[in-house]
Amino acid sequence: SDCTVIVSGLACRYKFVRESRRQILSLHFAGDIPDLDGLALPKADQGVCALTPVTVASISHAHLRGLAAAHPTFAEALTRQAMVDGSILGEWIANVGRRFAVERVAHLICESFTRMRALGLADADSFDLPMTQADMGDATGLSNVHVNRTMTALKKSGVLAVTRRSHRILDWARLRDHADFNPAYLHLLPAA
Amino acid sequence: SDCTVIVSGLACRYKFVRESRRQILSLHFAGDIPDLDGLALPKADQGVCALTPVTVASISHAHLRGLAAAHPTFAEALTRQAMVDGSILGEWIANVGRRFAVERVAHLICESFTRMRALGLADADSFDLPMTQADMGDATGLSNVHVNRTMTALKKSGVLAVTRRSHRILDWARLRDHADFNPAYLHLLPAA
DNA sequence: CGCCCCTTTGATATTAATCAAGAACTGTGG
DNA sequence: CCACAGTTCTTGATTAATATCAAAGGGGCG
């Protein structure tokens, strides 16, 4: 009966298929509330876990509901966030359903970079994506091995350089093109 | 600035990847509001279309907001529905990302049957799923050809009989098992 | 009847998974 | 500082899953 707010670090929601295959459903950065749906749905059907060490805060559902009742703007922000989450989930379905491996991985990188940049967590051209390649596989529906080969290909093609999970974007236009990435679905507010 | 309520027929949300590959994101039956997110998000980034002839009703956002303000129970139902939608999207990501073709197709059938049954649109053991196999492919991230082979396999294995898009469930337990289907994510209210 | 759309089937090509092993890195304790 | 143990990354060889291409049947409908 509490919601979790990510304060720092990287978390994700996931589901298991047949107790063995993990699929990551969404990534959550500072400010996100991965289990917001717990407010309206009694029993959770998806897991939340940390991909890096994470610091979190808790807000009771009661408290959250109180805030929403007292401040309509807050309630609106909450539902808006829920809708954005849904929009991102939709893009992920398209990503795993209809994109090739290179496109999927590139898309994951584009999305992470764009979101982190919007949060001030990324530099103009480089950022830390602190997940393992196995995690990236679980996010894109690929095997860890294939993620590795795909990353190698992206590096060779010169759009990206990676050292110790720090990613440097060498050619954003081409990376975006590899990924078929259009940030509209993130519904970021026009550059503040 | 209107929301659409499905009154009858089958609709879906979808996205295109590179203008050529379609991915269906969700199915919508009578009572659903496929574009509810338009309430909080100004520009839609996903399409809605009919898979069968559909009758719809329109409600203006203003009206909807008025109803929500006047009747907290209604507002709650709305957000609850949005959360359930999100939960279903999550299961679809897992379906497309981590399941084999048979599992995906079987899962689509299990979900459709369960949802239609909950709405009184399906018989105890048979129902109409009025989408083409190409549509099923777009919903599961498979080619129409492979959907066909998979359906053939399901029919041969004796869990299902299909005539003219009318599906008869011959062995629900086994079908559910083929699909790795657990209806928890649908958050249906305990049998009324 | 004829046409169009959908389904079915076969042959082949492509994509990505799996298996296996070795290299590089991370952090740990001596 | 170094040896080490445990991950993670990388690479190769092989297999499995699914796409694509092509063409032939069916069914409904004007």
Structural class of chain A: alpha+beta
Strand order of the largest sheet of chain A: 3-2-4
Helix content of chain A: 40-55%
Spans of at least 5 consecutive residues with low confidence of chain A: none
Report the count of strand segments of chain A.
Answer: 8
User: In percent, how much strand structure appears in the residues of chain A?
Assistant: 15-25%
Return the average pLDDT of chain A rounded to an integer: 96
Distance between the ends of chain A: 35 Å
Q: Biggest interface, and residues per chain?
A: A-B, 42 and 42 residues
Provide the succession of SSEs of chain A. EEEEEHHHEHHEEH
How large, in whole angstroms, is the Cα Rg of chain A? 17 Å
> Which assembly state applies to the chains in this document?
homodimer
**In DSSP terms, counting alpha (H) and pi (I) runs of 4 or more, how many helices of chain A?**
6
Shape designation of chain A: globular
Largest sheet of chain A: 3 strands, antiparallel
